[in-house]
Design goal:
The structure holds 2 protein chains of 2 kinds. By secondary structure, chain A is an all-alpha fold. Helices cover 64% and strands 0% of the residues of chain A. Chain A starts with a helix and ends with a helix. An 8-stranded mixed β-sheet of chain B has the order 4-3-5-6-2-1-8-7. Chains A and B meet through helix 1, helix 5 and helix 6 of A and strand 7, helix 6 and helix 7 of B.
């Protein structure tokens, strides 16, 4: 499933949106406040069932989708080396130049 | 905006110089900040996290007025006029703006952080375009990307992790 940080952020967001304390959320989900706290601190990665139950108790639901996994192509990391060889100003100037180019381009 | 209807290209030099001229305290975050450490994805906007104290908001508002800041919205390239004052800026957590320096997002507390006071503690200092700026390090930007967790953030996070893994020890 998601990383502990991701589940922590999701649960915290859902709990705050519902205006619940950790204790109240735990009570509604039939678990202990310490379980909620540890998930929100990213100390543990909850099981799917536990996470789903907690989110349901906040009035949210967990939906899973398939999406292409992010990948890093080797040419991207090659470009990192090239960019780092530039001066800091040039690193930013490249972004500015490309931004101008894109805005100036017109499809004909 | 001085040239209504024409979106402006991102102009980091104009942005950082204007913010410095008005003595705004902020940390550069997001993909433009990561660019300073070699991040290869080109971004269309600049993300800044300013200090939220009233004095700094007055300075920020003055800088944004100088940059003809307007509120960004889809379908209105020139943006929408707004009362760019410290009071107004304090009313929202995020401002998506179009300015004469391009798209600028003012984000008081990027996801996964508590804002300027936290970010400035480990910000990296760069001198660019004649001014010194505080820039969030890659580790911080990764933290924000992981917390925000949108599709683009996930892609960026993979790249940032690879960059951190490959980075020579400092």
């Amino acid at each position: 499933m998601a990383s502990p940080r991701q589940t922590a952020a999701l649960l915290l967001r859902a709990r705050r949106a519902a205006g619940l304390s950790q204790r109240e959320l735990a009570r509604r989900a039939g678990t202990a406040q310490s379980v909620v706290a540890r998930i929100e601190l990213a100390d543990v990665s909850p099981t799917w069932d536990t996470f789903e139950r907690l989110l349901l108790a906040t009035g949210q639901q967990l939906r899973a989708n398939l999406e292409p996994a992010p990948v890093v192509d080797s040419h991207m990391l090659d470009d990192v080396v090239r960019i780092r060889a530039l001066t800091p100003e040039s690193r930013l100037q490249e972004v500015a130049n490309l931004s101008r180019f894109i805005l100036g381009a017109r499809r004909v | 905006m001085s040239d209504a209807g024409a979106p402006r290209a991102l102009d980091p030099a104009l942005l950082v110089r204007t913010l410095a001229h008005h003595e705004v305290r902020y940390v550069l975050v997001g993909a433009l900040a990561a660019r300073l450490d070699g991040f290869p994805r080109v971004t269309a906007d600049a993300d800044i996290t300013p200090a939220r104290d009233p004095e700094n908001l007055v300075k920020l508002a003055a800088a944004l007025r100088r940059l003809d800041a307007r509120v960004f919205t889809e379908g209105v390239p020139e943006g929408l006029a707004f009362d760019c004052s410290a009071t107004t800026l304090a009313r929202a957590e995020v401002w998506n703006l179009v300015t004469s320096a391009g798209r600028v997002d003012v984000i008081f507390a990027p996801t996964g952080t508590h804002g300027y006071e936290e970010l400035v503690t480990d910000a990296v200092r760069y001198e660019v375009f004649g001014v010194e700026i505080a820039v969030a390090p890659l580790e911080r930007i990764l933290q924000m990307k992981e917390a925000a967790d949108r599709a683009q953030d996930r892609q960026d996070a993979v790249l940032l992790r690879a960059m951190l893994d490959a980075r020579p020890e400092r």
